[in-house]
Amino acid sequence: MNNTNTKILIIVTAILLTLNLYTFIVAYPETYTLTPGISTGGDILAKDFSAYYMAAWRLWNNPSHIFTFGALGGGEPIILPHPEAYKYLPSFLLIVSPLLTLDYQQALWTFDIIQFMLLPLMAYLLYKLLENKHIAVTVAVFTIALLLPFPTAHWGLSASYYWQWGEGQAKVFQIFLLLLSFYFGSRNKPYLSGVAFAFGFFDPRFGLLAIPLYVMYNRRNLKAAVASAVGTLALPNLMLLYPGLGSGFISMVFGSGITTPLYYYSFIPLLTLLSLIVVNFKALVAAFDYKGVLAGFTGATDPKK
């Protein structure tokens, strides 16, 4: 990518981040307000972050009930009206756990701020992943990933990002980890790529969608990438063998898990991944060619041969 295009992308990124910051500020009061949120049921709900915070607390104090809905008492943090249900893999709780040193509201805001600070890093990762694409294509993908504009009267310039920040959701963190995985794969670092991918798999819906891109970016050393991802995914989730934890996970998956709709914030990882799939369609087809997959597992230098 030439210097002119690089300068254009720097300006575009600055504009997108500024507009997202505006949405972040607009969403600030939402983090303190007990409202139905984006639920259609009309019930007053705690923020989605309450699910992560309470599940992380239970991981260290009452692991059998990580996937139990509602408050259980017994010294748990008090979150009104009740904490939301936890619906991710338990490995994600290892990432959230350091936030337990803060009270709930401070932890929510810290989580939001950390994720906002990841946006410039996401821009850099996308820049490196799309450096051989046309500038117009790159700008389009940047716009989807860093703002996903959908202006509304009360939700700032992006409904997706308004609820991402307002609910303390984790979708920015997830897409950052998946992009980081693709970046490491494109730099022929399959083991690091596998670690990032495994931790970014905590919401399996988007982890599964990302698999074709993971294969494509790691096609030069697919065997190592798969081994790293599977091993890293399995190790922290062995806690599912703990009595009550595994059965709670299965009940969640076949209960509320499979019926969870795609809320506004879910479109951040969904459309970012789909946009990368579209712009890399030819490379994806080549990566899934039989000879290409075989070469990736045998360590051939050119998977297309």
The whole-number mean of residue pLDDT values reads 92
The fraction of residues assigned to DSSP E strands is under 5%
What's the story with the biggest beta sheet? none
Alpha carbon gap, first and last residue: 28 Å
Number of helix segments? Answer: 14
**Topology order in helix (H) and strand (E) letters:** HHHHHHHHHHHHHH
Keyphrases for this structure?
305 residues; mainly alpha; 14 helices
Question: Would you write up a description of this structure?
Answer:
The chain has 305 residues and is mostly helical. It is built from 14 helices and no strands. The radius of gyration is 20 Å and the shape is globular.
List the helices and strands and how they pair.
Blueprint: H1 3-27, H2 49-61, H3 92-96, H4 104-129, H5 135-146, H6 159-166, H7 171-186, H8 190-199, H9 204-217, H10 222-234, H11 245-257, H12 267-279, H13 281-287, H14 290-298
Helix pairs in contact: 1-4, 1-5, 1-6, 4-5, 4-7, 5-12, 7-8, 7-9, 7-12, 8-10, 9-12, 9-13
What is the structure about, briefly put?
The protein has 305 residues and is mostly helical. It has helices at 3-27, 49-61, 92-96, 104-129, 135-146, 159-166, 171-186, 190-199, 204-217, 222-234, 245-257, 267-279, 281-287, 290-298. The two termini are 28 Å apart.
